[in-house]
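Batch manifest, entry 17 of 40.
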Amino acid sequence: MIKKWYFYTSLTVIIAFLSYSFKPLKLDTKEWFLRKNDNGTPYLFPSVKQEDYTSLNIPFTGNLFIGFKEALGFRESENKYKKVNSLGYLGKYQFGNETLRSIGIHDTDKFLKSPKLQEKAFVALLSKNKFILKDVIEKYDGKVVNGILITESGILAAAHLGGAGSVKRYFKNNGKKYIKDAYGTSIRSYLKAFGGYDTSFIVPNINAVVSL
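Output type: C-alpha cells
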C-alpha cells in the first residue's frame, strides 16, 4: 500500500514538473520589430496592417529601365501583350497602327503574337521620341513645371501617351494647358507617374525602326 502511494505521489510530482516546464513563456508585446526610431528614422515594415502592403510595387525595380517599361506597360494594358482596346490600340504598350508603321511594323497580327517584337517596338519609339524632344528634355529636365518635377523618363512616357507634339504643346503653355488622350488621361499625369526612371541608355534616333 505504501509503495503504491509512493508511486502515484511521485508520478503526480513528475507530471506537475513537466507541465510547468512546458508552460509558454510570457511574450514581449512591445512591437520593436514594427517600428524602431532610435536614431530619428522610422521603419515602417514589416507591419501587422495588411493595408500597408496593398500599394507596394513588387518586385522592387527602383529607377531601372525595366521598372519604367513594366510600370508603363501595366498602366497601358496590365502588361497584356495580346490586348486590343476599344480604339484599336494594340499590345502591351498600346500602339496605334500609324505609330507602328512609323517604326517599320506593318503586320499587326504578327506584332500581337510576338512579345519580343513589342519590346523592340517600345525601345524604337522611345529612341524616336527622344530625338524629337531632345530640346524639351535639355530645357526642362530637373525643373519643376506646374508643380511637377520634370525628368526625361516622364517626358518620354508622356510622349508615348499623347505623341511628341502634344508634349511640346504642354511645355509651350508652361504646363497649364490640359492635354489628354481619348480616354481622358492627361499628359501631366504621365509626367508625374513615370518620372525619375533611368532612360539614359536610349539613343536618340529619328529614323529608329524595328529590325524584323
